[in-house]
Structures are given as structure tokens and as C-alpha cells.
Q: What sequence folds into this?
């Protein structure tokens, strides 16, 4: 039996298509909620949780997450658990993977092989996913490029290219183009210069008055404390995932520092300006996405996308076709049965 672990809203969103197809086919699994982000779990999530962890408070949040997960051994008493599935690159995913490895329980890593090869960008996610690759037995990669990363690192275990499950949520949503530019920003590496990014956004909203710039707020205090700078940019509260992807499907283009949104925007055939030094979603760089290293360069990159926001017909989304969960189910059924 697979124990599926998640602790944040993005993890839940990407794991839900797998849990749905498991349930549909009576494929047994149990659920562990690590509690890393209790406030970001979707309200009313129709999900039975078999194990819930308590994250202790501590001077260092990352230490507290790892210590809390590693010290709650009651989750491993169940002898029916043969494999553990973790998603992505969170600290709780790394801790659950390490705890399973210490008990010689094979780890299935969903969204494996993504790399920037810079532990500071993003921090601590780049370390977390590289560490998970060293201990996992089954690697489920979104793209061929991610699989190539693992093979070049002589990674142990079986490697499969399955696309990204986040796209499974999007297959019934139609793409259109309105005058909105959707903006999200929250990453740790941007916290110290968040005010500069916001100044640049204000300048863009003044320069391109024909467009409506909409900033989707984030609860992180390092974002909240600078929101007063945004006057011309419309600020809205965080949206449930279903509502957000509707906005994404209809916007003109995207400005973001998110990783996953690079995948979703590509599926909707939208271009994105990515406000980061490096990205682990390299498959879309140069086509669907452009990297903007510094706030002062944002105007130049955005002006280019304003002039050329339409995507050529022969560009395909490099992150999958929206049928990843079915492929993963087939892979795991053949392995486990």
C-alpha cells in the first residue's frame, strides 16, 4: 500500500489527480498530512486523512519541520505501507522521504529531476529535491529534460517521464485572451527586493494603461508589508485553485516568480515573465517563459511580451498533456502488483 504525503496546497493539488484515479480503480492508498501549511489546505477538501503530524514551533522553521516529521514515528507502525509517495521539493517532503528511507521503505518522488544546480536559487527547495533524488527508488519526471538530469547524475532507481499532474486539472478549461496581466510574487529569494519588484510593477501599470495589472496577494508577511506600494496595480485576495486557473486561462500573459505557474500558463498557451535568477522549469525558457533577473529589467521584458503575446501554433506545452495521473497509475500498478 502506498502512503501519499503532502503538507502544502500546491502538493495537494498535484497529488489529487493521482488519489482520484487510485480511488476510481480501488487501488489502495493512505494519506499523510504533514501540517506544513495548515492555512493553505483547500477548504472542504473531500479527503480522508489517515495520519496528521504536528509541526512544532522553533527558532528555525526548517529545523522545526524536519525535527517534527522525523520524531513522530507512529506513522510507520502500519505494516501495510510498502511505498511512500512525496511530491516536489518542500522541506516536509524531504523529511518524510528521509524518514521512509531510514526504514528501508521505497520512496516514490513525484515531480522528480527538476534542477537549477544552485542551492540558493531556490532555497531550500533545490537542496530538498536533489536530496530526494538520492534516496528515492521511483522517479516520476515531468519532462525528458528532468529525466536526463537524473541519468547524468547516475541516480539510483527507476526513472519515468510522465508529465506534470497539475495539468490534469486544466483539460476542460478553454483559453482566451483579455486585457488582464496576472501577477504573483512570493518566493523567499525575492523577499529582500520585493519593494523594488513592486515599484517596477507600478511603473508598468502606468506605462501600459491599456492593460489591467492584477496582483494576487500571498499571506507571507514579506509580501504583505509592501502591498501599500501598489496603487495602479489592482490587488486581490488569494484565490481558490479553480478560480485562479480560470483567471489564468483568460489573461493576456503572466508575471510571476512561481515554479508551477510556468507549467499551467504554458498549457493555456500563455507567455510568462519569470522574476527569478534561475528556474528549474527550463523546458519552456525561450518559448513560453522569459527569465527576468532584476526588477529594473522588468519593463523591457514585459514590453516585448506586450508586442508578441500570441503563441505560435506549433509550440506545444513541454510539461505534459493533462493525462499524467493515468500514466502514473499504469506505471505504479505494474510495479506494485
A:
Amino acid at each position: 500500500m502506498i502512503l501519499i504525503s503532502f503538507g502544502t496546497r500546491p502538493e495537494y493539488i498535484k497529488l489529487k489527480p493521482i488519489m482520484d484515479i487510485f480511488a476510481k480503480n480501488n487501488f489502495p492508498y493512505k494519506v499523510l498530512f504533514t501540517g506544513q501549511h495548515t492555512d493553505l489546505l483547500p477548504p472542504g477538501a473531500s479527503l480522508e486523512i489517515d495520519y496528521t503530524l504536528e509541526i512544532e514551533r522553533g527558532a528555525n522553521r526548517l529545523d522545526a519541520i524536519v525535527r517534527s516529521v522525523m520524531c513522530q514515528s507512529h506513522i510507520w507502525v502500519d505494516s501495510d505501507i510498502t511505498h511512500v509517495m512525496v511530491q516536489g521539493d518542500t522541506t516536509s517532503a524531504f523529511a518524510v522521504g528521509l524518514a521512509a528511507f531510514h526504514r528501508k521503505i521505497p520512496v516514490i518522488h513525484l515531480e522528480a529531476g527538476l534542477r537549477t544546480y544552485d542551492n540558493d536559487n531556490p532555497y531550500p527547495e533545490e537542496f530538498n529535491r536533489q536530496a530526494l533524488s538520492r534516496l528515492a527508488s521511483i522517479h516520476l519526471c515531468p519532462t525528458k529534460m528532468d529525466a536526463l538530469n537524473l541519468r547524468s547524475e547516475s541516480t539510483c532507481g527507476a526513472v519515468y517521464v510522465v508529465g506534470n499532474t497539475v495539468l490534469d486539472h486544466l483539460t476542460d478549461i478553454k483559453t482566451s485572451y483579455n486585457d488582464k496581466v496576472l501577477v504573483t510574487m512570493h518566493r523567499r529569494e525575492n523577499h529582500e527586493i520585493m519593494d523594488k519588484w513592486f515599484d517596477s510593477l507600478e511603473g508598468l501599470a502606468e506605462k501600459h494603461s491599456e492593460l489591467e495589472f492584477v496582483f494576487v496577494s500571498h499571506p507571507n508577511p514579506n509580501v504583505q508589508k509592501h502591498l501599500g506600494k501598489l496603487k495602479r496595480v489592482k490587488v486581490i485576495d488569494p484565490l481558490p485553485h479553480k478560480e485562479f486557473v480560470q483567471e489564468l486561462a483568460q489573461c493576456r500573459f503572466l508575471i510571476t516568480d512561481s515554479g508551477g505557474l510556468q507549467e499551467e500558463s504554458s498549457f493555456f498557451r500563455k507567455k510568462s515573465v519569470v522574476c527569478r535568477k534561475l528556474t528549474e522549469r527550463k523546458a519552456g525558457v525561450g518559448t513560453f517563459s522569459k527569465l527576468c533577473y532584476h526588477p529594473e529589467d522588468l519593463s523591457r521584458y514585459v514590453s516585448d511580451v506586450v508586442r508578441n503575446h500570441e503563441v505560435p501554433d506549433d509550440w506545444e506545452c513541454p510539461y505534459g498533456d493533462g493525462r499524467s495521473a493515468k500514466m502514473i497509475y499504469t506505471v505504479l500498478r505494474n510495479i506494485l502488483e
User: Anything to note?
Assistant: The CA atoms of residues 142 and 162 lie 5 Å apart. The first strand starts at residue 2 and ends at 6. The chain has a mean pLDDT of 94.
